[in-house]
Specification:
The structure holds 2 protein chains of 2 kinds.
Chain A: H1 2-6, H2 10-46, H3 78-88, H4 99-115, E1 125-126, H5 132-142, E2 155-156, H6 165-173, H7 176-186, H8 190-213, H9 215-221, H10 226-236, H11 250-254, H12 256-273, H13 285-288, H14 298-323, H15 346-371, H16 379-407
Antiparallel strand pairs in A: 1-2
Chain B: H1 13-16, H2 20-40, E1 68-70, H3 85-89, E2 95-101, E3 113-121, H4 130-134, E4 140-142, E5 157-158, H5 160-167
Antiparallel strand pairs in B: 1-4, 2-3, 3-5
Classes of the chains: A mainly alpha, B alpha+beta.
Chain lengths: 411, 181
């Protein structure tokens, strides 16, 4: 036991905990809350409405304004109001449900969605030793000069640098379907049941094309580590924007076609996986009341909601990492904003994190725009598209990539 | 038979594969989003008003039909003589009048009647203006108040005091009770 404890790298442990808290509670969860707000506002402007544009903050007594407005966009505290509303609503458990599974289902939707975020490289690396000057100044002020300072080894901006990144994500993300199926089953009511059955059929069908669509990508990278993929794309051009480094070679431009196809299949399958319109057969308000969460109320309902949006954010993160260069800044190496191992200043590391989050925000806005543009597919059309088009296309894409890589070898 | 056979439009390949149709859809949604967004942020003129902050009250037309109210004449006499015509004509039966006699020592004893109680149930009133139309004494008018709210049903039962408070004084055409006739 003592031997085991002695082998624990305390710095690594603390850094991991800090990163988990940062990514989950300070990035993903606020982003989930604000993407709900963004969804409401964006859908409103698409439909020529205004949307939630005012939220009364009960702080007027202390001299604050009643609402915070930035650029004329009000209601920015709406997510807090929503959260408080969900917490204060009556948590009603119908008599006929199977209570254990009824309680389990919301957790099973939320937890996998959050767990997948550990392999996402949300930034390059943070060289915390850049802060040592400041730190020793602070120590000088408080008169204790011999306190520890940061080591010169940079902290990688990823929680778990697994060498099976995308596989891990798919393995965990597909557990999310259990939440929906169990919710549908445990509710003991026909609409949730139909929603759950549909969701399982749909997610199993699209899982195939989702998995197959990234095989060409993995073939090009020759790699399953998401961090290394990001580093490669930073130096040699994004997969869909091969405009610098090795990206200017003929091989990369020939591969642009199957990569574009892969991206399209990946994004469509991602829509189906996250149960977003035009593929939200599991909810399908027009047919199934509210689908699998018809019988849920208050925070349990909110957990389904949060799980859906968290899955959306993680999915966007994965798409960005695989196809759009992850945290890399476009033309980074050309304008001196590229990554170099162990030699990236702290501000650039932070800028990389910002760029990654910016790309995700862009992707989420795209998700929302699609939702309010396309009508819902019929269930048979959905299955037909999944099995007759997407699956074949993804398979064909693997063969096409292999052929093109044989024809014009990389490097 | 007046049957029209609607022919299913034949889609080009790029339409049935959601390529051109998708682009068209995105153009429409983004166009609307941009237009409304500019309106919200004040870069473009709005066609709508944000109600509680901005109101159109100054532009309400003369004939606007808001909450009904009782009025007094130029000598502060209650115009209503409780003839109950409005009560009988009111389509949703929102008006209840209890007539009362004017005592003989009152300066307006010759009018003989005035309402002892006059209640308008604003949860029933449909703002049709029939009471105003039918009143022979021009005692009841539809005012421009439209935001009639309350926290209970009782609050929305406008009694005589409330109705005169909303209505106020109105100098009108009926002069049969005063010296001008």
């Amino acid at each position: 036991m003592g031997h085991l404890l002695a082998n624990i790298d305390l710095t690594f442990l603390i850094a991991s905990v800090v990163k988990i808290v940062f990514l989950t509670f300070l990035v993903i969860l606020p982003m989930v809350a604000y993407s709900v707000y963004a969804e409401r506002r964006f859908s409103a402007v698409i439909q020529d409405r205004v949307g939630p544009n005012r939220t009364g903050i009960p702080l007027t007594l202390f001299g604050f304004k009643k609402d915070i407005q930035i650029l004329g966009i009000g209601g920015l505290t709406q997510p807090m109001a929503d959260g408080i509303k969900f917490l204060l609503k009556e948590d009603f458990t119908p008599k006929s449900v199977n209570a254990f599974y009824y309680w389990l289902a919301p957790c099973l939707t939320m937890v996998p969605a959050l767990m997948t975020c550990v392999v996402l490289p949300f930034g390059s690396e943070l060289r915390l030793s850049d802060l040592n000057g400041l730190l020793s100044w602070v120590y000088g002020v408080i008169g204790m000069a011999d306190l520890p300072v940061f080591s010169s080894v940079p902290v990688p901006s990823v929680i778990a640098d697994l060498s099976v990144g995308p596989l891990y994500t798919f393995a965990i993300a597909s557990l999310g379907v259990y939440g929906i199926v169990i919710a549908g089953w445990a509710s003991n009511s026909k609409y949730p049941f139909l929603g759950g059955v549909r969701a399982s059929a749909q997610m199993i069908s699209y899982e195939l094309s989702l998995g197959l669509s990234i095989i060409p990508v993995l073939m090009v990278f020759g790699e399953l580590n998401l961090t290394k993929m990001s580093i490669y794309q930073d130096a040699n051009g994004w997969l869909l924007l091969p405009l610098w480094g090795e990206g200017l070679s003929l091989a990369r431009w020939v591969l642009w076609i199957p990569m574009g196809l892969s991206f399209c299949i990946f994004v469509v399958a991602m829509f189906a996986e996250t149960n977003r319109l035009p593929f939200d057969m599991a909810e399908c308000e027009t047919e199934l009341v509210a689908g699998y969460h018809t019988e849920y109320s208050s925070m349990k309902f909110a957990l389904f909601f949060l799980g859906e949006y968290a899955a959306m954010i993680i999915g966007s993160g994965l798409a960005v990492t695989l196809f759009l260069g992850g945290w890399s800044i476009p033309f980074g190496p050309l304008i001196g904003l590229g990554y170099s191992a162990g030699d990236t200043p702290l501000w650039l590391g932070l800028l990389h994190i910002g760029v990654f989050l910016g790309k995700i925000v862009f992707f989420i806005l795209f998700f929302i725009l699609i939702r309010w543009t396309l009508p819902r597919f019929r269930f048979d059309q959905l299955m037909k598209l999944g099995w007759m088009v997407m699956f074949e296309l993804a398979l064909f894409n693997v063969v096409l990539t292999a052929f093109l890589m044989w024809l014009v070898p990389l490097k | 038979m007046a049957t029209i056979f609607v022919k299913r439009p034949k889609l080009a390949w790029h339409e049935s594969w959601f390529i051109s149709t998708f682009a068209k859809g995105l153009k429409i949604t983004l166009g609307h989003a941009l237009k409304t967004f500019l309106e919200i942020t004040g870069k473009k003129e709005k066609v709508t008003m944000e109600y509680p902050e901005q109101k159109w009250d100054d532009n309400l037309p003369e004939y606007y039909r808001g909450a009904p109210a009782l009025v007094t004449d130029e000598q502060d006499r209650e115009r209503c003589v409780s003839c109950q015509l409005c009560e009988f004509i009111c389509p949703p039966k929102a008006i209840r009048i209890t007539p009362g006699e004017i005592p003989s020592d009152d300066p307006w004893a010759k009018v003989e009647k005035r309402p002892k109680e006059f209640d308008i149930d604003m949860t029933r009133c449909i703002y049709c203006g029939m009471c105003e139309e039918v009143c022979p004494e021009q005692a009841i008018y539809l005012r421009k108040d439209y935001a009639i709210t309350g926290e209970s049903r009782a609050e929305l039962m406008h009694d005589k005091a409330k109705l005169y408070q909303i209505g106020g004084k109105r100098i009108g055409l009926v002069n049969k009770w005063n010296e001008l006739k």
